[in-house]
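User: Just a sanity check before I run the rest of the batch. Below are the structure tokens for the first item. I only need the designed sequence back.
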């Protein structure tokens, strides 16, 4: 599983997916923790939007292996560092599915995880979901066997009671690492444990309480650091703002933002790349609901609750709150386990009637999906998607030192920080004329999909008063373009 996952992820990790703005933000937080700042950021501007779990991991990697001084090189190094956690996700999925169904379904699940194009793209960028779900899956790999042993027909011997407590605490701590990486993980970790504590499902209440208490420890440590720095009011403001975005009271980005494209239109545009991923999410969500009702063991019910919780919180965001594409990682990975359990049960039932036909049908569906995924993977890597890197290279080789570059996407200002070039956010013409800019760097889809505060009409106004000097098309941003502006004094 590890070899297959890394063999799919590492080739083209620098060119297959253009750099996302959050990658620079999270890189800077990792460097901040490496330099001794916990919470990350600066004393005047601490970064409290997310807990620091992944940033601590980044800082440890940087201390062990160093980091490239070039901003893009540093991002790519952290992408490679993240693949360790991705490989552990594959191992965790294999262990969980093997415990619930057997070795063959576990191997197939691992292969689906390795080849799924949406999962591969998510893993190919420094986004918090990959590491968050990695810790959650590892927690499942610890807790699911405990549930099976504890609910076995033959009860566990009393001498194993202390070991059970230790295992429950270990699983809870792994869940806690997920929460300490991204708060949203609480829905797929702490919530199922709390449900077990209230209902008596999954584990004896004592063990559920131990696991839930352990899951709170990493985040409590984070809050302790924040309190010691006197930043609790800032933490409160950050978390209430995050909850407001999640609930839909504040919507600034995502599919529900004003003038943003609908999730349906984006899905249709990307169907040729992520068709099997969408199928996995849809069928996996149905399998999770089925397993929630039809589970024969407490461990099966637990993984179903985890998956349904992930689907529920993301589904709410799609309908009412802030919904962004990368959040669907909280759906596509958790549903793989109920999907494997449901598919195994379906095959076993079908074997009683017409075993050859059932195996042939399942095999054909799986083969078609894997061929589609392989083709999608090959196509994405055959066409470089690194327009920002190439635009940066063009500017540094052709623009005079001291040139001012206008940006519409936040990553541009991070790229040029500390260089001979200065950056200016796009403003109204009078403000821009006073700044006397030389170049515009435009990411087409950032503007069209409303991830930029600059409207398409405003951008077009400036483009019509500039000359195109560089352009490269990629899957992530469409056209990445550099324009040399006309005389700003005429604006």
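Assistant: Here's the designed sequence for the first item:
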């Amino acid at each position: 599983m590890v070899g297959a996952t890394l063999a799919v992820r590492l080739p083209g990790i620098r060119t297959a997916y253009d750099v996302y703005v959050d990658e620079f933000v999270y890189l800077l937080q990792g460097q901040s923790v490496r330099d001794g700042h916990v919470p990350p950021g600066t004393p005047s501007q601490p970064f409290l939007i997310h807990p620091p779990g992944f940033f601590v991991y980044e800082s440890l990697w940087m201390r062990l292996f160093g980091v490239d001084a070039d901003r893009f090189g540093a991002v790519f190094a952290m992408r490679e560092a993240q693949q360790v956690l991705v490989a552990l996700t594959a191992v965790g999925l294999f262990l969980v599915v093997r415990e619930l169904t057997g070795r063959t379904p576990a191997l197939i699940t691992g292969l689906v995880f390795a080849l799924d194009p949406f999962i591969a793209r998510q893993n190919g960028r420094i986004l918090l979901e990959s590491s968050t779900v990695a810790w959650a899956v590892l927690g499942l790999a610890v807790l699911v066997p405990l549930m099976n042993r504890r609910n076995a027909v033959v009860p566990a011997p009393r001498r194993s009671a202390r070991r059970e407590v230790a295992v429950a605490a270990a699983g809870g701590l792994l869940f806690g690492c997920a929460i300490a990486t991204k708060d949203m993980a609480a829905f797929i970790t702490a919530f199922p444990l709390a449900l077990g504590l209230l209902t008596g499902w999954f584990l004896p209440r004592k063990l559920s309480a131990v696991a839930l208490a352990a899951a709170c420890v990493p985040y409590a440590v984070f809050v302790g650091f924040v309190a010691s720095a006197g930043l609790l009011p800032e933490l409160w403001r950050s978390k209430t703002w995050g909850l407001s975005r999640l609930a839909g009271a504040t919507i600034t980005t995502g599919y529900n933002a004003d003038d943003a494209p609908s999730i349906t239109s984006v899905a249709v545009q990307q169907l040729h790349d992520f068709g099997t991923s969408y199928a996995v999410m849809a069928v996996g969500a149905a399998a999770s609901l089925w397993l929630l009702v039809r589970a024969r063991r407490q461990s099966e019910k637990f993984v179903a609750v985890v998956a349904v919780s992930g689907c529920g919180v993301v589904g709410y965001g799609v309908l009412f709150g802030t919904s962004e594409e990368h959040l669907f990682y909280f759906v596509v990975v958790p549903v793989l386990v109920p999907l494997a359990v449901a598919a195994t049960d379906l095959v076993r039932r079908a074997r009683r009637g017409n075993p050859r036909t059932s195996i042939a049908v399942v095999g054909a569906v799986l083969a078609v999906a894997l061929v589609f995924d392989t083709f999608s993977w090959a196509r994405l890597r055959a066409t470089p998607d690194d327009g920002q890197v190439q635009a940066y290279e063009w500017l540094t080789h052709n623009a005079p030192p001291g040139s001012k570059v206008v940006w519409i996407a936040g990553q541009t200002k991070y790229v040029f920080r500390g260089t001979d070039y200065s950056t200016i956010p796009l403003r109204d013409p009078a403000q821009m004329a006073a700044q006397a800019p030389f170049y515009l760097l435009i990411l087409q889809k950032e503007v069209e999909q409303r991830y930029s505060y600059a409207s398409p009409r405003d951008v077009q106004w400036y483009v019509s008063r500039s000359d195109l000097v560089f352009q490269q098309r990629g899957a992530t941003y469409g056209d990445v373009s550099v324009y040399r502006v006309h005389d700003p004094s005429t604006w």
